[in-house]
Amino acid sequence: MSRYEPVDSPDETTVFPYHDLTPPEPGDAYEAREIVRRYLPRTPLVRSEALSAETGADVYFKREDTLPTGAFKVRGGVTLGHRLPEEFREAGLIAASTGNHGQSVAYAGREFGVPVTIAVPADPNPEKVAAMERFGAEVVATGADYDEAREWAEGRAAEDGLRYVHSANEPDLVAGVATAGLEVLEALPAVDRVVCPVGGGSGAAGYCLTTGAIGGAEVIGVQSAAADATYRAYHEGHLDPAESATTEAEGISSRVPFALTVGVLRDRLDDLITVPEEAIWDGVRDVLAAERILIEGASASAVAAVRSMDDVAGETVVVPVTGRNLSTEKLRRAVAPP
Ligand SMILES: *Cc1c(COP(=O)(O)O)cnc(C)c1O
């Protein structure tokens, strides 16, 4: 069987023989830590005075926005790039992304000297596209939404023998992003709860394997009510695509749940909840106003969730600031008076 012919996938996406769907274990995060610390700085864990005052909890932001790509995913990108088998280095990597996964893969491509192609949907976040190109990737706008761009990239991978970097069915990405949870454990051993945005679920899976499984924290995932495919997969126990994903927070707007991450979440995540789309944009505006931190809608879903919880007073809560790459246009809309 060729390495470049798709094989049956338990979900609606395409996987290739080199995609190992064995769920990562906590030990894999420690191994990834040895890689990640060579390429990326440890990110700060900083108390949010405004959210703590508002909720009565001790709320800490894990500042993943301070990474060089401005989002947590690059931890996974460098882990995968470091381990990339020789056979793929010349042909290169291909991925579909609304932006931050693409920046992560593009960053890894530059770091390890591997060519990178990223498929983005029509009407992409222009600042994210510019960043991917700055990291040296070829960016191709194709398809009406993320899932159409994904199908195009999967086809190209099969035709041209490229290494398709799935946004979730990649143990190296999950283990890599899980290193954020290990850093949280080192900085703050007694965390009661981690509240993490969920798109494909790699970030939340990483916290489950570390702050959750090792540190004993409760890990709660959050989706927008306007893009709840993973929420349904988690609660209903299937991998059926949702009919639509209409959130404006492109970092969490996947329509299709993914086998590897949903498996980890069903095993280890304590709960997955949704927040209304409007609460996300209130979160962007208020975190900017009160903390002077620019966060993406995807990241603000977790802020909205913490604000909606009536049982967090007295707890120590960690909210990962998963990304800062909000488009200028969405920033304008978020701060404009209604
Ligand atoms: C990708 C992304 C998420 C969601 O992460 P998943 O691992 O897909 O669940 C959240 N926030 C930002 C900023 C992202 O880029």
Structure, explained:
This is Threonine dehydratase. Its cofactor is pyridoxal 5'-phosphate. One of its GO terms (molecular function) is L-serine ammonia-lyase activity. Residues 41-323 form the Tryptophan synthase beta chain-like PALP domain. One of its GO terms (biological process) is L-serine catabolic process. This protein has 338 residues and is of the alpha/beta class. It folds into 2 domains: 26-72 and 171-335, Rossmann fold (3-Layer(aba) Sandwich); 74-164, 3-Layer(aba) Sandwich (Rossmann fold), CATH 3.40.50.1100. The protein contains 14 helices and 10 strands. The protein has helices at residues 26-39, 49-55, 74-83, 100-112, 126-134, 146-160, 171-177, 179-187, 202-212, 229-236, 259-268, 277-291, 297-308, 328-335; strands at residues 45-47, 58-63, 93-96, 116-120, 138-141, 163-164, 193-197, 218-224, 271-275, 316-321. The strands form 2 sheets. Strands 1-2-10-7-8-9 form a 6-stranded mixed β-sheet, with helices on both faces. Helix 4 links the parallel strand 3 and strand 4. The protein is globular, with a radius of gyration of 18 Å. The chain starts with 25 loop residues before the first helix and ends with a helix. The model has no long low-confidence stretch (mean pLDDT 96). The structure holds pyridoxal-5'-phosphate.
